[in-house]
Design brief:
Layout (H helix, E strand, L loop, with lengths): L1 H9 L3 H20 L9 H20 L3 H18 L2 H17 L3 H17 L3 H17 L3 H18 L2 H13 L1
Length: 179
């Protein structure tokens, strides 16, 4: 089912992909309930569930099903916290922030994004920090706080240059040009 979902996404069949992920998640949840947790106390299964929830949420974001996407990301966040996995928690928190901004709740979005930023910084994850900084820049631009937006996009630019991330550099420069 996961391969079918991935193939559906590649071919822009987002509704079908979301349905495949939903079926996959039900199977995983049933397996977890049935005690099919294995030697690792179900960690691998929970990690796969968290990943599938994030993928489903990203699809639902693209299709505009933001309430459903929020539910998927909220569940992914709960699982990542259950695993005490900082990187997965940072990622799920980032997605919650993105969905909040899609829904126009910029204050809630920034709360999520600040939490995600703190986690990525504590992990010394420059890629994660640059992603969050870029999203924060968009939020600040949307609410006409251009000084903060400039600060965020410059932070993203600095990190992307250090990492040699040409796509990130182009996004940061493009957004700086808009401001």
């Amino acid at each position: 089912l996961q391969k079918a979902a991935e193939l559906s996404v590649k071919n822009f069949h987002n509704k079908a992909a979301a349905a495949y992920y939903e079926r996959l998640l039900k199977i995983m949840a049933d397996e977890l309930k049935a005690g099919g947790i294995g030697k690792d106390n179900g960690r691998a299964l929970i990690e796969n569930m968290e990943g599938a929830l994030c993928e489903k949420g990203k699809i639902l974001e693209v299709t505009g099903d933001w309430d459903e996407a929020q539910s998927a990301f909220d569940e992914a966040l709960k699982l990542s916290l259950r695993m005490r996995d900082k990187k997965r928690t940072a990622n799920a928190t980032l997605y919650c922030g993105i969905i909040a901004s899609c829904k126009g709740d910029f204050k809630k979005s920034l709360n999520y994004l600040f939490k995600s930023l703190q986690l990525y910084e504590s992990l010394n994850d420059d890629y994660g920090v640059s992603k969050v900084a870029g999203h924060m820049g968009y939020i600040y631009m949307s609410v006409n706080q251009l000084d903060k937006s400039l600060e965020c996009f410059n932070k993203k630019l600095k990190i992307c240059r250090r990492r040699g991330d040409e796509i990130g550099i182009s996004h940061a420069i493009g957004n700086l040009g808009i401001i």
